Amino acid sequence: MPESRCLQGIWSSPWIFIFAASGSAVGLGNIWKFPYVLGQNGGGAFLLVYCLCLLLVGLPVLVAEVALGRTVRSNPVDTVNDLSERRIVHKAWVIVPWLAGITGFLILTFYSVIAGWSIGYLERAISGDFQQITQAGAIAMFKGLLANPSEMLLWHSVFMALVVLTVGQSVTRGLSALVRILLPALVISLLGLSAYSMTVGDMSKTLEFMFGWSWQDITFDVVLAAVGMALFSLSVGMGAMFAYGAYMSKRMSITRACGIVVGVDLLVAILAGLLIFPLVFSFQIDVEAGPSLTFVSLPIIFGGLPGGQFFASVFFALLVIAALTSAISMLELFVAWLHEKFYIARLKAALLMGIAVWFIGIAVLLSFNHWDSKILFGLNFFELLDELTSLILLPVVAILLSILVAWFIPRTMLQNEMITKQISHFEWWYGTLKYISIPAMMVITVAGWIGV
Ligand code: PHE
Question: What is the residue with the minimal CA distance to atom 11 of ligand 1?
Fold first, then answer.
């Protein structure tokens, strides 16, 4: 198949796929969500299970998504339509890309609000508001932001405007340059900051908490949280990687590329943990504090750091860009589809989708203040969206997509898609997906629903 077939273009070099996919994977999930989920699930035991989940569930499903995208080189919806026209799979499977797109869309409605918090913190960092901040001051600052819907609306709107403008361009062009600078800069700043945080904070407690574990800490809830976190963090189960796979050069080995993405994603998450927890322990912040953990600890870290105003500004700018490179991948599926199917210009398609996300986002940001009433199952609107996507939609799409690839797409077709020299990689992936990832995801998800 000629490389030029994809309407959205091809990543200009095989490595750009790795950067773009890592840009999608590395985001608020690593820096905001991972530390607090780790905190809520007991530390080391969670990290251990999480690593296993990345290897046995996340990586195989990621490879499946990318491979499926690359086979047809079209947007995910048309990829499945094309396969059904060629009588390879039944047309009912088109439900999978649809559900995937809806999941990405719904995640973006709250992701954008939280990315907005990061922009709010960038503004505070630039104004020097973190200087010598106390713990009580940091808590009050975060609470103040949550209690101020107009400020949240402003940042949510700014972030969505950035998403629409970026995704409105071809992702294969602008994005690559952005991520090539962002990722190394983010890793370097996390390395430096976590080293600093460990010297001023409680390093021994942090290492004990993050890397120490015992068998009785591995509960079912920990496993459930780890699977959900692995899917979210690798951006699988919502079509983002499916779409990016379509732009991937045939010269690149999918397993190798995806292996690198998983490694980068894990590295950033661990560095975020090493940055946040030393302070959490030395200030006796509650490790189970939840979504506020990162936003309360970071100002304290920067507040005491010489040159903190500068470092904080750089760090939050990087965080916003990391969130942006993740957010655009959530809209890519529908934007590419609208563009290819109805010839709507990418910018227009992005605007249509962006406005819809923006509207729902308003309800999300109000659920932190004026509208914090529990609407269903004792959850407010934000919590409901979070649980609906991470506990139901993400795993369901990941399971269906994996079944489609492992059991319905002919093995030879997949084998041709992978680079044949690495036959052992193929065997490992195919066997793990079929016999470990799919059954594990099914058991864990269903058991989670019935509350085992
Ligand atoms: N993986 C991203 C993160 O960790 C979140 C994301 C979810 C991105 C779904 C794309 C699609 O922040």
Answer: 235
pLDDT digits (tens, 9 = 90+) for 54-112: 999 999 999 999 988 888 777 778 888 888 888 888 888 999 989 998 999 999 999 99
Read off the pTM.
0.90
Residue 165, Ramachandran bin (φ over 0: left; ψ between -120 and 50: alpha; else beta): alpha
How far apart are the CA of 87 and the centre of ligand 1, in A? Answer: 33
CA end-to-end span of the chain: 48
* Ligand 1, CB within 6 Å, residue ranges: 24-25, 27-30, 104, 107, 232-233, 235, 238, 240, 326, 329-330
More confident position, 375 or 183: 183
Tokens 């010297």 sit on residue: 199
Residues 143-163: b if buried by 16+ CB within 10 A, e if exposed: eebbeebebbbebbebbbebb
In testing the pocket of ligand 1, which one of 112, 267, 329, 385 has its CB within 8 Å of the most ligand atoms? Answer: 329
Q: Which residues of 27-53 are buried (b: 16+ CB within 10 A; e: fewer)?
A: bbbbbbbbbbbbbbbbbbbbbbbbbbb
Query: How far is ligand 1, taken at its centre, from the CA of residue 251, in Å?
Result: 26
Provide the angle, in degrees to the nearest 10, between the axes of the packed helices 220-233 and 394-403.
70
- 434 CA to centre of ligand 1 in angstroms: 24
Residue ID of nearest Cα to ligand 1 atom 4? 29
Separation CA 138–CA 296 (nearest Å): 5
- β-partners of residue 379 are 376
Residue 233, amino acid: S
Q: Helix 149-168 and helix 135-146: axis angle, to 10°?
A: 70
